[in-house]
Amino acid sequence: MKEMDAELLRRLVECHSTTGDEDEVMAVMKEAFRDCGLHTASLGRYALVARNGKNRGAEPTVLICAHADSPGYIVQSIKEGVGSVVELGKPNVEEGIDVPVVVKRGRLKFKGELRCEESDRFLRCDEELCRGDRVCFEGTLREDGDFLKGPFLDNRLGCFVLCELARSLDWASGIDVALAVTGGEEFTGFGASVLANHYKPDIVFCLDATYVDDDQEIKFGHGPVLTVTDKSVALGQVVVDEFTKLCSELGVDIQAEIYNYSGTDAVAFPRAGLTGLVFPLLMPTKGNHSKEEIASRRDLEAEIDLMRKLCGNQDALVRLKAISEW
Prior knowledge:
Blueprint: H1 6-14, H2 23-35, E1 39-43, E2 47-51, E3 62-67, E4 72-79, E5 82-88, E6 98-105, E7 108-117, E8 120-125, E9 134-137, E10 142-144, E11 147-150, H3 153-168, E12 177-182, H4 190-198, E13 203-211, E14 225-230, E15 233-234, H5 237-249, E16 255-258, H6 268-271, E17 277-286, E18 293-296, H7 297-311, H8 314-322
Parallel strand pairs: 3-12, 3-13, 13-17, 14-16
Antiparallel strand pairs: 1-2, 2-12, 4-5, 4-9, 5-8, 6-7, 6-9, 7-8, 10-11, 11-18, 14-15, 14-17, 17-18
């Protein structure tokens, strides 16, 4: 990946990070933020926030967030050495075959095999299993032309965008931008809830993953996807039109999706009383929550480019803030 830190993305994909056990991703993110000279603060074990101390209070204030966890499993019971696991989130596993997985217990990791049969999930491992062991896919990133392939692209890509912004934003511009990583998006939603109750920005950009969708003409290589409606957001046409116009002026193509189900961390902010606008900007992918998700490097580059341009342009942010109320 030219101009992007490909090794950092590989490190993020290799992390074992199920809901409530996001330590590995959070450690990588904290290191990346601090290497860029940002100050970090943990909101318990729910969110990590990075800021530049010089610009606090400058308006409009901006928050860009992404979640650290991916769907996985936890060992519920063990019988004759075979573990029965329950889902944390909604992992996408093919039934009737043995799927290689990584079992984690604290800092220890073991290789195992997971088999799904209708409503049952069975785990076998060479090591003795314990109740509470965490289970996820093996984390390996591959590049195939323009495509990135591997598990956990939802939402290690969003985390990667935050890291790229940490090292490339013009922190001397005077704009107050906070970068935040949340836990628990895939299962509890607690991370974004805690974040939203501690930080009240004027504008929020929520980075996550979505689906390639032929019916809606959501395609690879056509830029990030703005969610107009789903269970977590409902943007009015005035807002969508202004945001789309602004992206065009900045020279970045975006796509738009419309659903009445599913959702992202975006829901936490209005529930916490935030009056500012929340823009979910998602990466189109295939194989969501599976052992091999697929995304386009061009879309990733476009999202980073858009965030850089928006967060380096106070006039653009003022325009977005202006449409946040009737």
